[in-house]
Amino acid sequence: MPGENLSRDEARERAELLSVDGYEVVLDLRSAVDEAEPADGPRTFRSVTTVRFRAATPGASSFADLIAPSVNSVTLNGRELDPAVVFDGARIALDGLASENVLVVDADCAYSRTGEGMHRFVDPEDGEVYLYTQYEPADARRVYANFEQPDLKAPYRFEVTAPEGWQVWSNGVEESREGQTRRFAETAPISTYITCVVAGPYHYVTDSYTRGDLTIPLGAICRKGLAKHFDADEVFLVTKQGFDLFHEIFDYPYPFGKYDQAFVPEYNLGAMENPGMVTFREEYIFRGKVTQASYERRANTILHEMAHMWFGDLVTMKWWDDLWLKESFADFMGSFALVEATRFDQAWVTFANSRKAWAYRADQLPSTHPITADIRDLEDAKLNFDGITYAKGAAVLKQLVAYVGRDAFLEGARRYFKANAYGNTTLDDLLSVLGEVSGRDMAEWSRAWLQTAGVNALTPVVTCDAGGRVTELAVVQDGDELRPHRVAVGLYRLDPDGALVRYARAEADVAGVRTVVGELTGQEKPALVLVNDEDLTYCKIRFDEASLATLRSHLGSVTDPLSRALCWSALWNLTRDGLMPARDFVSLVLAHSGRETDVGVLQMLHAQALTAVTRYAAPDWREQGGKVLAACALQELRFAEPGSEHQLTWARFFAAGAATEGDFQLLLGLLEGSARIDGLEVDQELRWDFLLPLAAHGAIGEEVLAAELARDDTASGKRHQVRCLAARPSAAVKDQAWAAVVESDALSNALVEATIAGMQQSSQRGLLAPYTEPYFAVIERIWADRSIQIGMDVVRGLYPSLQDSQATLDATDVWLAAHESAAPALRRLVLESRDDLARALRAQGCDVAAAG
């Protein structure tokens, strides 16, 4: 990655000098289907870019961005420049600029196999080739020459020549077609990172959305091989519901014409908000039976990306420091819109239990940062698409709505769009309009919530009299930065029928170390005090001893789904923080998860319970803990309603935790049809879920996996097979997996991910031990030689976290000390992995102490 970085200072200087009037990008993609692979380099396509721009200082120098194997010609204002002189592999030097300039760059750009730039995918099912682009934060320069920073917006015209029989889409509507060449309408001014091209023999379904005089053409796109699984009607339904809501609350019509949504293969992200041409990972097209939680996640992603049409595309941050101006808002609006406009009216439960868990983890890492971050360069930007920018930012916006009121918040958004349409903004632009409509001091709120890092813990302290009445209820705040919190405090009691229900509630502004909630004085003594009831603020919840005792016995009896999810989240945070033994958390899951009605919460509990056993429990209890979890899963699987989504969820959990020979024999029987559980349909996706633990424990071999791939000879089947092959318990297998990822760049991004996931099995610590030293020896080379996406996957995925000992921490510290000058982004990834391991060791210490 040397030479490909761009600093904030460079971007600021270039924005002060240049303004861009427009791009014309001409791409010839016919080489995508050439049968012969090039012998002497990557497969390439021709890219010709014409940029019209102005310079504030005539005679000044600047540069354009381009990452390409070769440049055929560069012309500036009619003057031919020598590519060998002006192009260094990442930048084109531009000297002697005029007031008005025309730059023409003719280059051969490379197709990607890493999901960055112009990704090329060959479908193993039918040999068809599919292309799509993915640019955020700065990979448009892999496809055409440009000024790659968000504040140099411009209109774009794309012209694409594609192979015979292909369809092609871009941000604008197709205006004309001549032979194999399509020309697309000029876009509104947008940033480079949200331009887009999708091309190939895709399956395409159309619809339209109408509201008053506005009509938006809708399209839904997927590979031909997935067409039989594609529920486009459901995608269109959520899309229309989102447009209805956002037009109503934003009072600004969708500004980008058509609205296509493409579900594409080997996608690195969940989705990307390219205006008029949104791209999604194709795993959102479900090949088998899934739960409503999966449909909710997809709907959330659809609405998240739609919110970006306003927050991010219409109004864009100047630089990646203010990434939160788009991602936090889109994350918040995704859940908000689900509740307001769709059947998924319990989305705030998912947000509290799942999205905020991501935020809490990120906010306790050594790399934690304020929501408004200090982004020095593009590598920083890439890593800041994290739980703080997304989920913590969204949680803080939820707090802001409670602080200023819903009406003021939405009115502020409306004024923000109208004042800054097609422009770029900073934090101050948003705060000024929110302060104007709410009358609140936004500067102080911003300082506390946006410009400081870390998460607070709120703990209730309850005093009662001899008659069983509350004499005082206080909330104690912990943390390096004490913040103002608008919270609801709920008091719960056990009803005669055993239900744990709320009987009193009060809202309060918590500030400083200790805040008394006077409205609750005189209430009867509670069995449970739930601070941050209804999840109004961003904090970790703690419990007093009486409340914790109640939860141990009656957690499954909490009647409200959101309250119950908040309790589960708090207990998991106690476990992660080494304040509750892992085996105690597992016991709570064993006792109460069978009564969990929200399947998304149940899936999260399953994942957390497995983590508790494999990472946080005392090593000598892991085997026993795994067996009791698997036994619980099997019992609940047999008790679950036949054909229900809970039954499917317990089946997957049972497979993930299978621990005994009897477990493996049952899985084999379900696969072969010799065993049966009433109502459980073992479809292709569930078959792969069953095969992974069988492969990891040596119960099946390569021949069984080859036969399964023949049964499911698809892109998804290949990923599953690669994961299962790498999971087999053999030193030779691990060597092959390591070599495939580390010593070769032949695998695509999706297969790199699958290989790493298969290789890292918690039951194979001994087999993985030899890779600790090689890991630290290769990561700097990997970071230098591979794309940033692959670098991130390898550095995170192969860190020896399963070698959970002080020796691994020491080896990490030795590497960090010896590589102080390594790329900051690389050091950050290593520091984060080290912190996760240190946390696991602390949790293990807590569990050991509990065992006596």
**Count of DSSP-assigned helices:** 28
What percentage of amino acids are in beta strands?
15-25%
Measure the end-to-end span.
51 Å
Task: Kindly state the percentage of residues in helix.
Answer: 40-55%
Structural class: alpha+beta
- Name the shape in a single word: globular
Describe the secondary-structure layout.
Elements: H1 8-17, E1 18-28, E2 44-55, E3 62-65, E4 70-76, E5 79-81, H2 83-86, E6 91-94, E7 100-112, E8 117-122, E9 129-134, E10 156-161, E11 167-170, E12 174-178, E13 181-184, E14 197-200, E15 203-211, E16 214-222, H3 232-250, E17 259-264, E18 271-272, E19 277-281, H4 292-308, E20 316-317, H5 324-341, H6 347-363, H7 378-383, H8 388-404, H9 406-420, E21 424-425, H10 427-438, H11 442-449, E22 457-464, E23 470-478, E24 485-494, E25 500-510, E26 514-516, E27 528-533, E28 540-541, H12 545-554, H13 561-576, H14 582-592, H15 599-616, H16 622-639, H17 645-657, H18 661-672, H19 684-696, H20 702-711, H21 715-727, H22 731-742, H23 749-759, H24 765-768, H25 772-785, H26 788-797, H27 806-818, H28 824-851
Parallel strand pairs: 1-10, 7-8, 16-17, 17-19, 20-21, 22-28
Antiparallel strand pairs: 1-2, 2-7, 3-6, 4-5, 4-7, 8-9, 9-14, 10-13, 11-14, 12-13, 15-16, 18-19, 22-23, 23-26, 24-25, 24-27
